[in-house]
Amino acid sequence: MPAIKPFNAVFYNKEKIDNLSSVICPPYDVISKEQQEAYYKQHPNNFIRLELAKETSKDSAKDNKYTRAKKTYEDWLAKGILKQDEAYCIYFYKQDYTYLGQRYTRMGFLGLLNLNEDSGVKILPHEHTHSAAKTDRLTLWTALKTDLSSIFVGYSDKTNVIEKIFMKELASQKPYLEAVDPDKVKHMIWRLADPDKIQLVMDVLEGQNLFICDGHHRFEVANQMRRDAMKKQKNHTGKEPYNFVMTYFTNMDSKDLQIFPIHRIVKKFPINVTLLEQYFRIDKIKTKNDLLVLLARAGQNEHAFGLCKKEGLYLLRLKSKTLIDKVVKEGSKDYKSLDSAILKAFIFDQVGVASEDILYSKDPTEVLAAVAEGQADAGFILNPILIKQLKTIALNDERMPPKTTYFYPKVLSGLTLYKMD
């Protein structure tokens, strides 16, 4: 049984929707209430109506956000707003973006990942999940019998075999689908339907360790749906649609694979900065830009954090790595060396910061603004983890603390869908 295979995706009909940018949206788990409302207003066929439909005070077992999403989905299919590809393809997916003034391109492809344990690959997660998010996706996907948004998986391709296939076969052609998101990231999709070329792509991934970069909840939901379906299926073959999950694959050896840190906004942090001197060298910093530069520099050899308080900005550097084993009580040596684990053990656990008092953001400016506006007592700025750290933790069969990684850019919702019936 192959580890990956092509599929005939459902996507927006270009004859009905002339501006794809107006109907796509990010994955459900990064959409705020304000953004949800904005996407609803943006276009009557915006994918938000399926991905994250609105709740109302009158919701019931027969009429709720899931039943409304199902009705909307069936209506769009009937009216041809959404249509299913006639061919089985893998879909090359290119994202052009700018970060800190530098241009990047991330190349990948969308296909189906085999959930069978004998598929020839090992699928390795790296983060813990939350039950509420899994219940939400399970209810939605089951109602629609469709996988609405892909998981995000990394593979190894040091000689860029897959990218060379794209360059030779598709790069000179106009993208089949094209959209620009609110962050000015350009998203482009090409269809590859040639079975021989698809096989070349599949061969690269055969026997590999595949690392889940994003979409852990969706991966677990797909597995649960498979288990539920297998209980009802008398003659399970392993080839049924429920054995697969729609997946975005990208090369982890690429220099353009970006991991952002996820920073912490702490609503209640009553202690004085000087009380952290037991474990940290503390320097007061004048500006945000200075803090970011010094934090990145310190992070090359030390465990360091930026701290924002009403009274100013500070750079915190752990005094000695020998302290880690004494203070971080759980996990392997690799786990204990994660900045997110050190921050929790050395500061949050010591001070007594409650998990419900911690908010998360990938934007340092948002963290500083929350403190400046009195919405939080403190903000902690982190350095990003390295790809090799993610791989090591996953290979150790460990899970990072929640909100440790943020892969950028996100894979959009609404580009392709996978019908699982």
General description of the model:
The protein has helices at residues 33-42, 48-51, 65-79, 131-144, 161-169, 195-205, 216-232, 288-298, 324-327, 333-336, 339-351, 364-372, 387-395; strands at 4-5, 10-12, 82-84, 90-99, 102-114, 122-124, 146-147, 151-155, 177-180, 186-192, 209-214, 244-251, 258-260, 263-266, 280-285, 304-309, 312-318, 358-361, 378-381, 406-408, 418-419. By secondary structure, it is an alpha+beta fold. The protein folds into two domains: 4-258 and 409-419, no CATH class; 262-383, 2-Layer Sandwich (Conserved hypothetical protein from pyrococcus furiosus pfu- 392566-001, domain 2), CATH 3.30.1760. The strands form five sheets. Strands 1, 4, 5, 6, 8, 9, 10, 11 and 12 form a nine-stranded mixed sheet that branches. Helix 3 packs parallel to helix 4 (131-144) and helix 4 packs across helix 7. The relative contact order is 0.17.
